[in-house]
TrEMBL record:
Residues 28-37 have a biased composition (Basic and acidic residues). GO terms for cellular component: heterochromatin; nucleoplasm. Residues 38-55 have a biased composition (Polar residues). It comes from Salvelinus namaycush (Lake trout). It comes from the Eukaryota. Residues 20-58 are annotated as: Disordered. One of its GO terms (biological process) is negative regulation of gene expression, epigenetic. This is Protein TASOR-like. PANTHER family: PROTEIN TASOR, SET DOMAIN-CONTAINING PROTEIN. GO terms for molecular function: chromatin binding.
Amino acid sequence: MESYSGDNIPASKYSSVKYYKTLPSDTRPTEDGEHSSEQAGGTETRPRSGTSTQYIPKAGDHFNFQIPRKNKEKRALFQYVSSESREFEDILTILSSSYIEASSTGTFTYTKLRIVHSELLEKDFVEKRRELKLDGRTEKELEETHCFLTADIIKVKDL
């Protein structure tokens, strides 16, 4: 078994670790938790401890590992917006500027504001916008200026 301390590695820091050019063949754990490897007609047994020899991969070693794909969210994620935040004020300004009648400003009360994050909806939106642009719509027509409001089912009757 050939071992060496490595290139440019301080021996004092890694004195209990041996570096192998290849992983020792026929290495298997024994019944008592020790590692045994048969070499040249003999058996070498090493106890498992902090100072035991271990295989440390070199920079040139190649491993066959595939990175798993990231699963896309199929559901929308809701982000609650505090009524004291700047985002809330910005959204409230957009909503109030969209009223048909300016006198409606004091009529509505907004609570539990949430921003919806959905990759699927965003993808559909971008695709539809691209189609409209190809159909000859102007940038002013494609400008994002509207917000949609949903209310509680009980309060919808009162509207």
